């Protein structure tokens, strides 16, 4: 059974269009359904209208919400109320094409998708009647979310999911962007996108004002900090902090005990090497802990095995870095001012990518 969740605020006039059309489409496709209108006690009597329509369309009912108002909380409550095997979220104002509802349903029911998104930004999709300003804002907003998900339209308010995707997921009802929240925090393998043309509403007015932008930026910040999201960015941040730890410890060791030892004849190099090994071990452990808990959110596997693999990757990367750099400077003779630095940078980027892939695909593989 499909549970269609429709958040509403002052959408009375749209109910008489949406509910009959949606019911007809789903019945003609023999898809069992319920329609849950999640209404924030709209003063225009949206709920009464749904009540009235439910005589003819018994699959539809309205849930009047008196607390915790807002689009996302309404959708989340819809997830809790729904009894279907697939949840679908759509707007009430007919912006989302009703004919696509069965396609989103089938993507999950028959094609093995966990999440199906009605997308404006893939081939065949688009937006009708939006002023350029809104298109630009929408595009900019999608770009800021690019590293968080591979979905091309994570701002879409039109999507379907399996209940297991959000079961136990720490969803916050703060932002308006429920789908983005689900994509970052949910558990899923396959996402399918179905192209849609988004039509601006004809009846009633948009509720999403300028505070939405501020809210969105805050929401993004939380999502970027969330364990496991945008792992490459987190990996680089952790690596950067690891360099500080490494240099900090090395400097401390040299300053605290280095002087006495280094002044002994013949011992300097040996001890600097030992100091380097100590600071390398510390920094690698520091990186390991942050990457395990935060970058890759890989706490479900045993840490010991991960640690050995992570150290192996780090050590191999260190050896490769040393070797490549040796070749660049001593064999290829890159010793001049720009060549030296360019080759150093190239080697570091190459080895960082290796480190990342080794960590992601091997050490912290889930
Ligand atoms: N319960 C409840 N409470 N519903 C709300 C609230 C609220 O505070 N605010 C808005 N809604 C409902 C509306 O009644 C409508 O059904 C739906 O949420 C979308 O609201 P609109 O006001 O029509 O938003 P929009 O058209 O500007 O934005 C749409 O497109 C965006 C993508 O550009 C929505 O689908 C957004 O989710 C989407 O990100
Ligand atoms: Mn709308």
Summarize the structure.
The protein is an alpha/beta fold. 55% of the residues lie in helices and 11% in strands. It has a seven-stranded mixed beta sheet with strand order 3-2-1-4-7-5-8. A two-stranded parallel sheet has the order 6-9.
What does this structure look like?
The chain has 366 residues and is α/β, with parallel strands linked by helices. The protein is built from twelve helices and nine strands. Helix 2 links the parallel strand 2 (33-39) and strand 3 (60-64). The radius of gyration is 27 Å and the shape is elongated. The strands form two sheets. A seven-stranded mixed sheet has the order 3-2-1-4-7-5-8. Strands 6-9 form a two-stranded parallel ribbon. The mean pLDDT is 92. The protein folds into two domains: 2-225, Alpha-Beta Complex (Spore Coat Polysaccharide Biosynthesis Protein SpsA, Chain A), CATH 3.90.550.10; 231-363, no CATH class.
Biggest sheet architecture: 7 strands, mixed
What is the percentage of strand-forming residues?
5-15%
| Poorly predicted spans | none
Q: What structural class do the secondary elements suggest?
A: alpha/beta
Q: How large is the radius of gyration?
A: 27 Å
How does the overall form come out from the CA principal axes?
A: elongated
CATH class of the largest domain, named Alpha Beta
């Amino acid at each position: 059974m499909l549970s269609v969740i429709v958040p509403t605020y002052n959408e009375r006039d749209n109910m008489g269009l949406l509910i009959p059309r949606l019911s007809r489409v789903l019945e003609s496709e023999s898809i069992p359904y319920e329609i849950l209108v999640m209404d924030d006690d709209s003063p225009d009597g949206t709920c009464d209208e749904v009540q009235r329509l439910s005589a003819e369309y018994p699959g539809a009912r309205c849930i009047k919400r008196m607390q915790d108002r807002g689009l996302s909380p309404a959708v989340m409550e819809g997830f809790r109320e729904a009894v279907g095997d697939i949840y679908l979220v759509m707007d009430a104002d007919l912006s989302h094409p009703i004919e696509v509802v069965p396609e989103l349903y089938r993507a999950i029911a028959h094609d093995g998708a966990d999440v199906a998104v009605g997308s404006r930004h893939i081939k065949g999709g688009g937006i009708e009647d939006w002023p350029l300003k809104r298109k630009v804002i929408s595009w900019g907003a999608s770009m800021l979310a690019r590293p968080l998900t591979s979905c091309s339209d994570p701002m879409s308010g039109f999507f379907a999911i399996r209940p297991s995707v959000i079961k136990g997921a720490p969803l916050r009802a703060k932002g308006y962007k429920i789908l983005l929240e689900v994509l970052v925090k949910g558990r899923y393998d396959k996402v399918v996108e179905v192209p849609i043309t988004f039509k601006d509403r004809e009846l009633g007015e948009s509720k999403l004002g300028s505070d939405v932008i501020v809210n969105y930026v805050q929401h993004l910040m939380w999502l970027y900090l969330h364990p496991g999201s945008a792992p490459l960015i987190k990996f680089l941040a952790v690596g950067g902090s690891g360099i500080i730890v490494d240099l900090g410890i090395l400097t401390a060791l040299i300053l605290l005990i280095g002087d006495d030892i280094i002044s002994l004849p013949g011992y300097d190099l040996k001890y600097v090497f030992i100091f380097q090994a100590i600071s390398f071990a510390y920094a690698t452990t520091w990186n390991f802990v942050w990457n395990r808990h935060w970058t890759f959110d890989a706490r479900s596997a045993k840490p010991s095995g991960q640690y050995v693999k992570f150290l192996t990757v780090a050590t191999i990367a260190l050896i490769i870095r040393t070797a490549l750099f040796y070749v660049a400077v001593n064999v290829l003779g890159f010793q001049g001012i720009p060549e030296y630095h360019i080759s150093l940078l190239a080697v570091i980027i190459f080895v960082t990518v290796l480190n990342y892939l080794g960590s992601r695909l091997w050490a912290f593989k889930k």
